[in-house]
Amino acid sequence: MARLCFTLVILALALLVSQGESQTCTSQTFENKNVYANCTDLPHLNAYLHWTYNSTDSTLAIAFIAPPPNPEGWVSWSINPESPTMISSQALLAFKNNDNITINTYNVSSYNPAEWGTKLLYDVWDLSAEESNGNIIIFAKWKFLEKIEKVNHVWQVGPGIVEGLPLKHAMNPENKDSKGILQLVGI
């Protein structure tokens, strides 16, 4: 009897794990009812990106979803006009501040957050963030200076904010590999 109970517990745990891992961006919806033409299960940090690119006016609407590493943590999604790296990224960074989600913009010019500016190279509007099921979701619209087909993007999560500045993220392979090229047309 004890062996049967142990087997049932193992099967139940396996079912719970597989259900948690099976969530994909196609199953996600938003409280604000935004709908996007495309979505991607990003390969690192349990993150997702929803987006619609309008090639007529060179605008990109996004919803980025990721769990912060702890309740005081932050999440970030950015575009880098030069390469898929942190330096030169145009970042949207959100964190929980008391019971509200705060979102800031950063022009990541160095590894020292105190040196970052808040003015981005691109116009960004409809900027908002919310918390849902342990995730922070960033919503934004970006305006590019010209028509593009792809963008370098970087996403990240970090442990918290001190004196208004984000603390350094972990340097695990998953953090270091959270970057890529987002193909906007021809997909």
Written overview of the protein:
The protein has helices at 2-21, 173-176; strands at residues 38-41, 48-54, 59-66, 74-80, 90-97, 100-107, 123-132, 135-143, 150-158, 161-162, 165-166, 179-183. The protein is mostly beta strands.
Keywords:
about 190 residues; mainly beta; about 40% strand; globular
What order do the helices and strands come in, and which of them pair?
Blueprint: H1 2-21, E1 38-41, E2 48-54, E3 59-66, E4 74-80, E5 90-97, E6 100-107, E7 123-132, E8 135-143, E9 150-158, E10 161-162, E11 165-166, H2 173-176, E12 179-183
Antiparallel strand pairs: 1-2, 2-3, 3-8, 4-5, 4-9, 5-6, 7-8, 9-12, 10-11
Number of strands: 12
N-C termini distance: 54 Å
What's the total helix number?
A: 2
Average pLDDT number: 87
Tell me the structural class.
mainly beta
Q: Approximately what portion of the residues adopt beta-strand conformation? A: 35-45%
The helicity comes to 10-25%
Give, in order, the helices and strands: HEEEEEEEEEEEHE
Please state how the strands of the largest beta sheet are arranged side by side.
1-2-3-8-7
Query: What value does the Rg take, in angstroms?
Result: 18 Å
For the sheet with most strands, the description reads: 5 strands, antiparallel
* Shape designation: globular
